[in-house]
Amino acid sequence: MKHYKLNTHQKSYSDADLLINQKEHPDTKIGDVVEVYDREDENTRLLLQITKFNDLRRDEISIEAGIATQFNLRKFAYVFMRRVNASDVALDSIEITFKDQYMGRSEMWRLKTYLTDTCVYINKKIENNEMQIRCQVYEMWAQGERVSCGVITEDTKIVFRSSTSMVYLFLQMSSEMWDFDIHGDLYFEKAVNGFLTELFHKWKKLGCNHEVTVVLFSRTFYAAKSLDEFPDHMRDCLQLDYKGRYYEDFYRVAIQNERNEDWCTVLTQLRKLFTSYESTVLRYHEREGVQIPAATNSTAAQGNFLEVLNISLNTFEKHYLDRTFDRTGQLSVVITPGVGVFEVDRELTNITKQRIIDNGVGSDLVCVGEQPLHAVPLLKFHNKDTTVTSADDYSLPHWINLSFYSTNKKVAYSNFIPRIKLPPIVANVTLNEENRESEKYFLSCNQSEYIHNSLFDYDAYDEQIFQPPPAQSTCSLQRVVRAKKTSVPSLETSAYRNHDWENLTPTKIPNLRRKMSDPDIYHGTSGMLAALTDTPNLSESLASDKNARRSIVSIAPIVRPGRALINPFDPSHVTIKLTSNRRRWTHIFPKGPTGVLIQQHHYQAVPAKPQNLNYGNVANSENEYSSGYSAIDYDHTSTCSSLNKSFIANNECDKTDFAKKRNNSLLNATTNNVTTGVVAPTKSFLWGATGEQEWTPALTTGKHLNPIVESEAPFISESANADGRGKVIIGVDWKSLTIPACLPITTDYFPDKRSLHNDYVISDYTLLPDDVNIDYANSRAVYRKPLSTEEVFREIVSQRLAQGFQLIVVEEKSAQPAQAPCCGGSKQQKPSTVLGMVAPTEVTKEYMLSIGRIFHRITLVGSVITVTGYRPRHPYPPINVDYRYRFHAPQHETYEISGVNFTTEKLENFNWNFMDHYICTRGDRDYSLMESLKYWRYRMYLLPTDNLAMKKIIEYGSQRCDIYTDLAVDNTKKQVEDFMRFMEVHINKVKRQRVHHVTSRINEKHHPLFMSTQQSFISKPVMKVDRGRISPAADAAAIALNTDLNHREDHDDGFVTEVKLRPNSNLTEVLEAMKHPQTGVAFFTQTTSLPNYTFVSHEALLWLKARMDNSRNPLEILEAMRKERMICHASGDWDKQIIPGFYLYYIPQPEKQPVKVENHKVLPPDFNAFEHEWMEIELQGCNHLWFEEAKMPNIPTFLRDIPSAQSWADYSQNNRIYRNSHLEINVNQKSDRMEWGHVKYHTVMQPGYAFEIVVEWVTASGPIVGDLIWGWTRKANHCNYELISVPADPMAEPFTEKSDPLRGPIFIPLSEKFLSSKGVMFGEFSEESRADRMLLFQEAILARFGFLPCVIEKKFSFNKDIPKEYQYVHCSGHMFVLIRCSKNNYQIESPSRQEANVTRCVYGHTNNTNVPKKVGFLWAWNHMIPNKKWKSLVIKNSPDGELFQLKMLKDFRDFCSDTDERLSKFWELCYELKRKSLKADSNNEGKLK
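RE: above sequence
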């Protein structure tokens, strides 16, 4: 083989990984894959793709220097290079990591398409500029082994892992946390000093930047028989369990949505919380002189494990509401001192399971207890049957990823690890006589029934009880059940063998029943199940032939007869029907050498033979997980991703072939068995997340396996050979906990023909994009290119992926049927009559997708798209669990009551037909986005930036924070001007007609973006510089657009003489002056969507004010011109009144009208269509800018005779608070996808108020939307505004639907002492106005602290007495405040218990809700502020680096509690102002007389 001299090149020279000379390799072409390796080291082989040719010297190739270094290829060394077939080096799976960015599922699919047929190597950086995505290759698998390079093909499974996820860490503070482990450490120490310390260390090492919430949680049981034993203050949150025990659940949020580079400080915080946690929670309700029932902390098994998962799911489900662009992925980690066994409610299990699977959320369970001798995780269902002999029912959830954490500590004298926890020693307890008697009786009674161990075959008995169901009865079962029309056919299970069933039951059962032990199965009422049998209320006993023991199973309330119970000590004998749920996550697991999916943190403790890797044993020191590339590594089925080098080095031992132990794999089931719906006779393994693992009773726990390998290796290998099983060790899945995987975009399960026919309802509809598009495109105010049929087809698939669907990849049928895929055979070659498919010859493209039990087939034939949906014939019944708990968030002072609902979402109700038409019509207003479509949104407030008070607090350490009103200056004019500039240039992107002296002025400091107020166009209308609106880039664009600019510029000298209009000018004169090319109103450049002579109403008003005296109101003049048809709204609607603000009007040109119609569209004017394309905003509260008004007296609003309205919403001409417009998202033309969205915004801008903008989208890529918004943010800063991201639900009040369960407002009451000292507040005013005056007084307090009002939509309620709510945001954007004001002397009459609870919870009500409530404020943090920005506001020279936000809260609390009489002084000051103002008015009146 020919060798070549290796040269290296830098990225700056060429971005190609490999350069070769085409003359030397005439047979190679772009895209070919070559293998390069050093002739001295043939084991390190590198694959590279030819992307460019270069004129290199003879016999020379060049590789990028970084790659050469990584693969130990020396410069100028001689290497072999040969072309290889891409299919021979194809990868089975590849893991790609990305950080600090949001990548949606549709982007993942597009990236997969982009990467197909490319060559990758370990740590390769991938950049896609079209999608603005940066990521890196992390790990690759081919033919059962990890490799260092390979080619991505159509069949390669791509796993995306995010280093910046939303992570919830829940620490279960059950009673075991205070127990000691075998090394003498408290389990809490093991969890925090051990596991968390190690986890945070790994995060740091891998550069993870997760957004973390840490919560301590526990359940407290109370020793009480009835509610009467509890005092009133305890009753609000009590819950009753199935055994009739009273309990309360507590949640202590230690860290909320934080990002840290170093998490060590958090550990200290957790240790502090631990010391007081138990006593605080158990003694929380103690009051002096009040007797409360004894409280005890629950064990881990009886704790609130499922509730915790659901609480995180309530937040994760709403990921589309508060979308951020710097993180992807969601992970819920529960750290428990238990052993992975939980006693749970069956309904809650079903809810949890469906939600976790449907939402694609990673859920990890980390046990710091020792691994038990049975299969875990194990859920033991609450047995509501109280008879002694009723059997317990278990489930092994495949949707929880389990890890066991054990420390490295060794005990000098033993390698023994106890795996059963001993019961506590009961010291010196003497049995009383009664107990002794009963014990004697128990031992003596019915001796005949208790056969001695040697005679009774317990194993045979167990085998009979846990008898697996046979394959042959499945078909008859389906027929029986179907005839009854119940919802049971969906139950994923099988039936008993007939003869065994008869042996076991004395009473003959008429029909077979379905097993209901697995949580895959949803259960309805007993009545539904009773429909399956003629004897609904029968109690049947299960007994052996000899009647040695009897086990009676009661049917009511939930009937579960005739089930093969799961035996946790040998679960492999239970056959579980394969479902889409079980295959949802399988594509994140790599395949081991035998073709079985493996979990890398399950170690096989059997030494195995060394094997050589195909490509490159590269050990990368930077990457913790790639360090396992070593010939002395364990067999790859047993390799943990986190095996460290020291462990590998210590364990050089022989390997044995692992394939024998996996011979019962699901993949070995014959295709015939799977496709015809008959359960394969081989064992199917229900244990473990992959669904393809067998649980062995020889499981043991361990982290580094050293003791096992060193001392027990010989024994293990013997026992392994004897029974075909080796020891499996569950370690910690560090990879999942550090770089969690996103839900894979592919799966491999599709139901077989029989199942589709029996269990699914089929519906279909067709789309003809070409026919629909043209009509809709023409009806728009701004023409936009419609989507082609191909684009619509891809977008329809993208939308399903974005909503959690997965593409079904069904492997083709191979020559050997044993290799058939698990998902039910290969793709059908012939059309099926059941599916009603078109003949395969016509199909141009087809995709199949699934989520849960919903399947979609999308086909494109010519220009017709057909969507076929399969939904279950018997959907699961909806379940709703109402849950109450107490939680304590950071900066809160107490554990507050909260409540939340856990519900399953009915995915089959999603309106896909509507969504597909929305895509077809390119988001036309006929198909507006609805809440049920779960569209993404990003909410922002536009706030003015210049603030002296904030600077004084942060820079100069002002002691008090109520200084905002003292330092405020009236800059309304400047604010309005900046706002108009922002809306015009950056949001609406319209350009001015005239551009003067661009070249000479472009670098001058007078450039409009940097103009001071004095130099701006508005304050000096005579100045004709640039018209104060356009950036240099826009200037250049305007020049390109306007061909007639040059001759205009000839007679420009930068300034013009000021023209004043006569006071009595008629409208025609005014119109002519407006049209004047030099001194007229500034018009926009003509575009296809805007007529000639288009101007902004606000500028016309200022123009008129500058040219007329104050005797005439400019607004009235413009309105008179409109009525005379001299000016018209830009939509062509003559009836649209003149509204001051950014509203577009134009001067009609009669002579040009026909030409305009010819060029433009011939449709009648449509104001709604125009409104849908342009953001038009009314200005309020600044009429004085164009017409001088009488000054208001300087009296605080709450002390005026007639208090003014609270917000513009109360007096605006607009009935609507919000309006929606179309938004072009791909402004920089980076994306190859047709992207668009919508913008929802306030209809009115009023200085001193927050202005809201919400970007909404479904058909856009996250990074592109992020790019647009970051552009807006930068430009807003240029316009002296700050665009702050805010949550959809800022207050997160308990009991509200979309509320975050672990977030809540802080209640800050006004000093009761102050309020009571005033007697009747505002006694001198009428009673009706007092509630409003109280609100305005609170608003005045907020203004002192720099809060601005936000106008929000009023909550709709049938209850007339629902309180008014007013929301405020701090000018920094970091805090929110809500004031609730009700009429009727501050009383709230709540129509329901739930609403009563809202007030009780927040304001501390008693059970009587008609008690006057406390007056105060609800304070909440803005958790959407980026963490770095939040932490940057440190007050200078403060002793312990105090944060500005916390100082604000502390000072606000002090003010409201009347510390140093600050509140009283403020009250007096307001009255003093009123007195002075009235005195001044009376003096003025005296002078006038």
